[in-house]
Specification:
Blueprint lengths: L5 E7 L5 E9 L4 H10 L8 E11 L1 H17 L3 E4 L3 H9 L7 E3 L2 H8 L2
Parallel strand pairs: 2-3, 3-4, 4-5
Antiparallel strand pairs: 1-2
Helix pairs in contact: 1-2
């Protein structure tokens, strides 16, 4: 049995965008870590937030719920929120459950930053 681990960190991109980097497995065991980082992140209309999932290995329904919570916080604050780097499997799940209608996606952090500044 493998250890379920997740790290979620926040940093500011050189162009002023907040980036939440998520690495590992996002499930009911590890979701509190990402929830904490999201709760500690200021959401405002003038600072976009990117959630970088490029190094996410696994995401269950609890993880998706955490991401929807981030969307709700961003929406309430009028803050742009983009999900970055979803692998093909996770993107497929998001399409099946209709979250491709809710979230904005970009392949990389740099693509997202460029799209926001276009």
């Amino acid at each position: 049995m493998t250890d379920r681990t997740l790290t979620a960190t926040r940093h500011t991109h050189s162009r002023g965008v907040t980036v939440l980097a998520v690495v590992g497995e996002l499930d009911h065991h590890t979701a509190p870590e990402l929830t904490r980082v999201i709760q500690d992140t200021p959401f405002s209309s003038d600072v976009p937030v990117l959630i970088d999932l490029a190094e996410l290995d696994y995401c269950d329904s609890t993880g998706i719920t955490v991401l929807i919570g981030a969307y709700n916080r961003a929406h309430e604050a009028g803050a742009p929120l983009l999900l970055v780097g979803l692998n093909a499997d996770l993107m497929h799940v998001f399409r099946i459950i209709g979250l491709d209608q809710l979230f904005t996606f970009q392949p990389t952090v740099e693509d997202a930053v460029n799209a926001l500044n276009a």
